[in-house]
Design goal:
The complex is a heterodimer of chains A (270) and B (97). Chain A is built from five helices and 18 strands. Chain A has 270 residues and is of the alpha+beta class. Chain B is elongated. Chain B is of the alpha+beta class. Chain B has one domain: 2-Layer Sandwich (YaeB-like fold), CATH 3.30.2310.20. Classes of the chains: A alpha+beta (270), B alpha+beta (97). The interface between A and B is large, with 60 and 62 residues.
Chain lengths: 270, 97
């Protein structure tokens, strides 16, 4: 099992996402094993196909085989129906923003007209965030800002569904394909950012308190200093604090030292 | 490649104030300062060193997007653009915790 979804957004956007985790075995006497594999194929600038279910590597091979034989989306759909695999589901997205799914060896594809299509793990599907989960007040005026927000929101919406927490059959790094100028392309892998120094584990109030008491941070900040904003930058844990703030000459916040075992920490200019 | 200067538009901080409280809650919900201290610094380093490599282009616009995971915020979308060859500007932020 896996999770593959496609979502249209804005006036002409479309994104297809999937996870990397492949599980096999797990039956009686066969240990459960894992490996990683992308489950979407960009067959051409205008066609993307995703596969879920058992034997995904074999399913991807079949899609490539039929694509090489037929060369068209409509003929590929017909070939996969004729193939009739009951173990795998397929999702096809086209650059005209039409989306189709084929489930459980059905004898015809279903065209998804709601703007969202998916195949695979139903638990993962349930973890896709609803449309109104993020608030979007007016953004700064910048060329393309609205489009950028639409695009990333479509990406972030399915992020929780592609994590191991959503289901034991999904996980690994999310893979995305989206349209640029009417053609599908893979995005680069998303990054995980962590502070360059060893990151503290923050699960709640106590962890933050301990981190501060243990001397972390002496934080080399690179926060731009504009209109005195860092004056409002603070960590509030209650109690009293004593902080040294040392701005640098280029307008960046310098090192901020927490010098007290009290719980009030304030970082900013005097 | 030369490290670039990363500047932040005031709208970014206004947006951040809308997304997070000014003080960490008793249940451990992060504050704006938590985000700035633990996540934004790493993001700024990434933008300064790897702007083109780590951001996604947006069709026919000058805005690019860095989608990332942070320490106190699970999913972060940072909207940025290139002001000139030496400077990157952070415009806006969205995230899901």
């Amino acid at each position: 099992m896996t999770f593959v979804c496609a979502e249209s957004y804005g006036e002409n956007g479309l994104i297809i996402r999937t996870d990397l985790l492949v599980t096999y075995g797990g039956e009686e006497g066969v240990p459960l094993s894992h490996f990683a594999m992308p489950k979407v194929l960009v067959l051409g600038p205008d066609v993307v196909v995703g596969v879920s279910g058992r034997g995904i590597q074999h399913g991807l091979g079949e899609v490539v085989h039929y694509w090489n034989e037929t060369g068209s989306a409509i003929d590929l759909r017909a070939a996969l129906v004729e193939n009739g695999s009951k173990h795998r589901d397929y999702l096809m997205a086209q650059s005209d923003r039409r989306m189709f799914t084929l489930r459980d060896g059905a004898n015809e594809w279903t065209e998804e007209t709601s703007g969202f299509a998916w195949i695979g793990d139903a638990q993962a599907r349930a973890a896709v965030l609803p449309h109104d989960a993020l608030s979007q007040p007016s953004a700064p005026e910048a060329h393309g800002m609205e489009r950028a927000i639409d695009e990333t929101w479509a990406m972030v919406r399915s992020q929780t569904a592609l994590r191991r927490e959503a289901s034991s059959t999904v996980g690994g790094m999310p893979i995305s394909v989206y349209m640029q100028r009417g053609e599908f392309r893979f995005t680069q892998p998303e990054q995980l950012t962590w502070p360059s120094q060893e990151a503290p584990v923050l699960r709640g109030f106590d962890d933050v308190h301990q981190v501060l008491l243990s001397g972390w941070p002496t934080v080399p900040n690179h926060i731009h200093h504009e209109d005195g904003y860092p004056a409002t930058l603070r960590i509030c844990l209650g109690g009293n604090a004593e902080v040294t703030y040392r701005p640098t000459t280029d307008g960046y916040v310098g090192d901020a030292y927490v010098r007290t075992d009290q719980a009030w920490v304030h970082v900013g200019p005097d | 490649m030369k490290r670039r200067l990363v500047v932040v538009r005031p709208e970014f901080f206004k947006r951040l104030d809308e997304l997070l409280p000014t003080e960490r809650s008793a249940t451990g919900d992060p504050s704006t300062a938590d985000f700035i201290l633990h996540d934004l610094t790493a993001i700024i380093d990434t933008l300064a060193d790897e702007y083109a490599e780590r951001t996604l282009p947006v069709e026919d616009t000058d805005v690019r997007v860095l989608v990332s995971s942070g320490l106190v915020v699970a999913f972060i979308a940072i909207y940025v653009r290139e002001v000139d060859v030496d400077t990157i500007e952070i415009l806006w932020v969205d995230f899901e915790r």
